[in-house]
Amino acid sequence: MADDKDVLRDVWFGRIPTCFTLNPDEVTEREAEPYYLLLPRVSYLTLVTDKVKKHFLKVMKAEDVEEMWFEYEGTPLKWHYPIGVLFDLHASNTVLPWNITVHFKNFPDHDLLHCLSNSIIEAHFMSSIKEADALKHKSQVVNDMQKKDHKQLWMGLQNDKFDQFWAMNRKLMEYPTEEGGFRYIPFRIYQTMSDRPFIQKLFRPVSPEGNAHTLSDLLKEIFPAAIPNEGEQKRYQVVIHGIEPLLETPLQWLSEHLSHPDNFLHICIIPTPTD
Amino acid sequence: MAAVSDPPGAPERSGRLLAGRGGGRSAETWKRHVVRQLKNRDLRQHTMFQDLIRFYTQLLEKNSLAKGILSSSTRCSSSDSSSSISSLLHQNDQLKKTTGELAYQVVELQQQIKIKECVLEERHARLVEEQCRLVGVFGVRQELQQQVEQVQKKNRVLKMEYDALLERQRGAETRLREAEDKGGHLLEDMIHLKQQAADRMNSLNERKSRARALKLQRDLQTTVTSKVPIDSCSSAPASRSTSPKNEERGESTERRRTRLFRSASASSPRILTSIRKLFDRKRRGRSVCSLEEDLMGPVGVCLAARVPVRALQVLEAHEQGINAVTFSPSSDLLATGGTDRVIKLWEVRAGSMTHRATLDGSTEGITCIEFDPTGSRVLAASYDKSALLWQLDNSVPKLTLTGHSRKVTAARFSSSIHRVVTGSADRTIRLWDLQRAACVQVVEVASYCSDLVCPENCIISGHYDCKIRVWDSRAGSCIQELPAQGKVTSLDISPDHRQLLSCCRDDCLQLVDLRWWSNARVCFRAEGFKCGSDSTKAVISPDSCFLAAGSADGAVYIWNVSTGNLETRLSDKHSSSISAVSWSLSGEYIVSVDKSRWAVLWSDL
């Protein structure tokens, strides 16, 4: 169990070294230095980039500044995905640090959501938690919580307070022992090469026969191609929080320990690098 | 990229091997795999860059700082390098102008300083003032604190007193509770006693009714067995006056009297009877113990009352104080009534009293008793707001006259037949019809009525407002008011209805001559005579020659009417205040009763 707690900590404190560079098209008074930052995997881009914004605003005229947005190798980064997911999906097998380009103009309305204040992130975060609990407990746990409990969850994430967050999140992870798990596992499977943003289906943690479902069972059901046939070279990597768990890992355990703070198990399926 | 994919490869393989061996181990494997991969990930992505990024950020900050300084200094040096004389001069002018401005500023500032100093002084003064006030306020505060201390001290004292009082109250409460307990016990005892009394009464009544039934039966038997003697008796009415049979006495006297009245002329019946009684009296004087005496009817007038000299009998007549005593018209029967709610009938014969019967029925004490002229009925007034009428042969009252709202103080047979008059503490006088057993008239009086007498056609009542009122019994209106010296406690009228005796609380008996309707009054006083209560009863002797009254000192005082002096004082028999006296119509006996249950029979024998 000590291991489980360590896993939770490692997941929470996962960091990605990132180098922010200003888009060369932006009009500046002088040359902008790149800005380096360790981004928390479980947080959201717009929530942790205040310093970045401040840094670049120093060299810019106020009238040239519009809403800030980020882009990696031509892909606008969706702030409403957790940072870890963005990294695993787009840049997991590249050289570190992660190079992100900062834009203050030409906001891609088509690809990105506007994020004018932290309350929008909070609303998105809380709605994810509620959706996950609807899957796990028919919303019973989250509805039983008080307003301040919800606030505690959000403040835990916003201020990077592991204990504060988990004191409350623990309740969301409980389940009746006789059922052996949640009602359904809240998960999302992301692919780079698909037009669909992600796959999300109802999937129980335990089979009708009473056996615990594993990651492999989930993939067989949702994305059979991710499982290599016998003797065949592995075509896809199944990445959660920057690691590849074994396929026999029980799904319930994964949901409890490797979920993001929004209570979803975000699974990225990326092609195995060919080099 | 190989470095990323290779490390997880090896444990994956070993994990699969372990999974083949056992479920428990394989569970460990996947978890260990996750932990190890996470550690690896952090090592590659986090730890390696942590310091680097920190240092970079620091450098960035320093750099920007340095740049800021550098830019300002370079601007300065550039202006220096492009110097010329004109520009220097220009600068000089500028400097001078600046100096002037500065001097002006200095002056201005000095002025400001002065103003500030003024303000400062003012402030200082105010400060001093405030300090003074503060000192004053401190003094006041100290005073107040002293007051507070004093008040607290007082409060402590009060609290102590309060505690003491509380303690006392608690003590008092416990005492009260004890007293209440005791009261409850007493009440229980009383209820018990009452119950016992009721039981006794029940058994008494039962015994009486049984005795009566027995007697009836016996009478019936005698009637059945002795038919012939009765016939002979009725056939010889002439010998009735000498018949010795006691039980036929009442009947025989009755018949004789009717005969007498029938034979007498309507104009002067009283003279005839008096003459007849005179003879009777003489004969009785000769042979006191003869059986014939018992056969005599009621004595209307006594010609010679004899002043008693000694007590023949002293006895404890009642269980509680005695309020009233009366001889029957025949003088051989005496009725006493007291606070113990019963009337006792005594036979007075040969100088001794013997208990004959008890009349009960009143629920409170008896205040007044009167026999009717035939001597067969007894009327009594009671504290229970009613008057009661008994037939002598029945201990249960024949009538109960209720209607007064307070105790009835006097009840008298009226001169007209079937009428009685009652006086009450509720300040009314009521007339009752005995045939209808109803109140026929209510006379409102101004004051508490203590006693009344009923001569022909009028009612005379005595009151606590020191007045004696004479009422017309038919109209119910007050004809006359006679003054008295004090609260009137009792009234008595002479047998010839000429003189009225009243007893007052000022220890004086007053005799009024009713004939003149005037103020012809004689007062009788004696040294030592003291009216003992508000209902002390005094009487006129049957021959109207003497007055008798009991005193608070336990002595009976007898005055001579003609001389107005005290005739005699009978003492040493009563230990408490005498409440009433009665003079037998035969003139032989006086009975006095007192508040401590004793009755004394006086005579001259």
From TrEMBL, chain A:
GO terms for biological process: apoptotic process; autophagosome assembly; autophagy of mitochondrion; cellular response to nitrogen starvation; immune system process; negative regulation of programmed cell death; piecemeal microautophagy of the nucleus. It holds the Pfam family ATG5_UblA. Residues 184-269 form the Autophagy protein ATG5 UblB domain. It is a peripheral membrane protein. Residues 120-174 form the Autophagy protein ATG5 alpha-helical bundle region domain. GO terms for molecular function: Atg8-family ligase activity. InterPro entries: Atg5 (IPR007239), ATG5_HBR (IPR048940), Atg5_HR (IPR042526), ATG5_UblA (IPR048939), Atg5_UblA_dom_sf (IPR042527), ATG5_UblB (IPR048318). Residues 11-104 form the Autophagy protein ATG5 UblA domain. It is found in: Cytoplasm; Preautophagosomal structure membrane. One of its GO terms (cellular component) is Atg12-Atg5-Atg16 complex. Gene3D superfamilies: 3.10.20.620, Autophagy protein Apg5, helix rich domain, Phosphatidylinositol 3-kinase Catalytic Subunit, Chain A, domain 1. Keywords: Acetylation, Apoptosis, Autophagy, Cytoplasm, Immunity, Isopeptide bond, Membrane, Ubl conjugation. Coiled coil: none annotated. Conjugated with ATG12. Forms a conjugate with ATG12. Part of the minor complex composed of 4 sets of ATG12-ATG5 and ATG16L1 (400 kDa); this complex interacts with ATG3 leading to disruption of ATG7 interaction and promotion of ATG8-like proteins lipidation. Forms an 800-kDa complex composed of ATG12-ATG5 and ATG16L2. The ATG12-ATG5 conjugate interacts with RAB33A; this interaction is bridged by ATG16L1 and promotes ATG12-ATG5-ATG16L1 complex recruitment to phagophores. Interacts with TECPR1; the interaction is direct and does not take place when ATG16L1 is associated with the ATG5-ATG12 conjugate. Belongs to the ATG5 family. Involved in autophagic vesicle formation. May play an important role in the apoptotic process, possibly within the modified cytoskeleton. Its expression is a relatively late event in the apoptotic process, occurring downstream of caspase activity. Plays a crucial role in IFN-gamma-induced autophagic cell death by interacting with FADD. This is Autophagy protein 5. It comes from Anabas testudineus (Climbing perch).
TrEMBL record, chain B:
Gene3D superfamilies: YVTN repeat-like/Quinoprotein amine dehydrogenase. It comes from the Eukaryota. Pfam families: ATG16, WD40. GO terms for biological process: autophagosome assembly. Residues 1-25, 225-263 are annotated as: Disordered. WD repeats lie at residues 315-356, 359-400, 401-442, 541-569. Residues 232-244 have a biased composition (Low complexity). The keyword Cytoplasm does not apply. Residues 141-214 form a coiled coil. InterPro entries: ATG16, Autophagy-rel_prot_16_dom, WD40/YVTN_repeat-like_dom_sf, WD40_PAC1, WD40_repeat_CS, WD40_repeat_dom_sf, WD40_rpt. Keywords: Coiled coil, Repeat, WD repeat. Residues 245-255 have a biased composition (Basic and acidic residues). Residues 33-202 form the Autophagy-related protein domain. Belongs to the WD repeat ATG16 family. This is Autophagy-related protein 16 domain-containing protein. It comes from Anabas testudineus. The gene is ATG16L2.
